Every structure is written in structure tokens, then in C-alpha cells.
Amino acid sequence: MSDFKKIIFATHNSGKVKEMKEMLSDLGIEILSAEEAGIFDDVIEDGATFIENSLKKAKFVAEKSGCYAVADDTGLCIRELNGAPGVFSARWAGEGASREELLKYTLEKTKHLDNNNRQAYFETAVVLCSPAGEYQVFSGKIEGQLTLEPLGEPRVKLPYDQIFIPNGYEITFAQMSDAKKNSLSHRGLAFTKLKEYLKKII
What we know:
With 202 residues, the protein is of the alpha/beta class. The chain has a single domain, classed as Maf protein (Alpha-Beta Complex), CATH 3.90.950. It has helices spanning 14-23, 50-65, 99-109, 178-184, 186-201; strands spanning 6-9, 30-33, 68-78, 84-85, 119-129, 135-146, 164-166. Strands 1, 2, 3, 4, 5, 6 and 7 form a seven-stranded mixed beta sheet that branches. A hairpin with a 5-residue loop joins β3 (68-78) and β4 (84-85). The longest helix has 16 residues, at 50-65. The protein starts with 5 loop residues before the first strand and ends with a helix.
């Protein structure tokens, strides 16, 4: 998996694309979003796990583009809610729910939890897939707790950043700089593993 100059990120989430471009900027690989690669179709994310959803998206874009593709699936998992919303994080307030609606719904679902029972974690599965269907999986997870209200400046299509404080910190992801968040976040951890892998093969 060494003969490539660009990777297509199989997402329509501009916030995720921005994070990936920043993290892999020193590798000399061109990072394109699905739209930039001319792919506008959506893949139905009906997998039972983050890996299944990531693999489905990455394979679709790799086959469609003829290039290597990366996809991630990420979810917020609330321990007192048996891991919900998990793989349904983007749509558990309803299909097409806005950032405000997702936050309002999440805070409503957790309003009965006191400060000792608001533990949650973010989990990410990143898949790198070749046009031939060969793939590698990289995962990341970070523990923390939920706030009682949104805090910090929202990032594009990353609503839960405003209500998640990682363990060891007193501020939400949304109150951190991009560099700080990327250095410790679930997606940052997974993409760091991807980056180390790419360094070995390019």
C-alpha cells in the first residue's frame, strides 16, 4: 500500500476533513474530501459497529474513485444510557437534526444524571482502504464526562464537542484549540495511528 499521492476522505463533514488535513499535512499526501473527488453519493451507515460503518464508507469511495480512501465513524457513548447514542450519534435526535437539536436532545436525555454519573466516552474507528479492497483499521477512545450545558465555540458538524470534558481537564473540546483537541481526542488518537502507519509505507 505504498503507491499513492492522495487519499480521499469518505465524508461530507467539513469539520472532519479540516482535522485530517491538519494532522497529515506533513506527509506530502494530498487529502481530498468526497466532494472534491467528485463523489456526492451517501452510503447508508447501517452497521452495528463503528468499524463496520467506516469500512463500508471507505470501500465505497475507494472503488468509486480508484484511489485510497479513509473513512471514520465516531460516536458519543454515555455509560448510564448503556452506551447510547453510539453508532446513532449523528441521528439519534432524528434524521437531519441540527447541532442545537442534537445537543438539546442529549442534555434532555441526561438531565436526571448527577455529576457523578455523567461519564461518557468518544470512540472512533478509522479505516484505510485500497481500491482493491484491502484495508487497515485504526481506533481511538477517550473517556470524560458530560456538562450540563453547551460550553465553548461550536465546530462545524461536531456538536458534542460543546458538552464533553475529557478526563484530566476542566474544559470541553469546544473550548480547546484545534491543536490541543487533535493531540488528545479519540479521532486524534486514531489518526495518529494512521499517520504512523503511513509513514512506514510511503
